[in-house]
Amino acid sequence: MAVEKKVEANYRSDLIKIDPKKRIATFKHIDTGVVTTKPFDAMHVVPHMSPPEELKKSELANSMGFVDVDKETMQHVKYPNVFACGDSSNLPTSKTAAAITSQVPIMVHNLFRQMKGQTLNAKFDGYTSCPIFVGDNKLMLCEFLYGLNVQETFPWDQGEPSQIFFHMKKDFFPPVYWNFFVSGMWYGKRGWIPPFLPKD
Questions:
Q1: Which among 41, 110, 129 is positioned nearest to 69, based on CA atoms?
Q2: Coil, strand, or helix at residue 43?
Q3: Which of 64, 95, 161, 180 is an S-S bond match for 186, by CB 3.0 to 4.6 Å?
């Protein structure tokens, strides 16, 4: 898609300066330290993602600074009474709203089972969803599990840009977020239906 639309991707580069009048961006490569300038029409910049310093320095964190949990049960690998999900965890999936709505019910289920001395029997499969705007009021809705295994919700190729997905993101999801997501009443791809979690 980037090649088709003639979009240049610059990886492992820090944006260190921007001249909005001349529309020139200055980057420094993370590995080589080489500084380059590039003209731009539009630019999407992804900031460094990092957990809070307090967490990085704690015994809960792994070498990258994220809470070190089992990727399926979300229980800490060293401290069984600690659970984590979302942005602070080391779960190897994209940190999105879709991911957290799938993680929380499983984590809570396992947390309560841990408190009762029961086996943790709910497992997170890595589900996440990344809506990607491609212009022309179209969007790709990319859904996948751990290992980048595709798991699409709709019965057509979600890798094809669609106006339906664009309007879902623009018109449907904002009220869902404010009215249901933040109050714990939205379950990602399951909508308003809670996941079916194992009892024993």
A1: 110
A2: coil
A3: 180
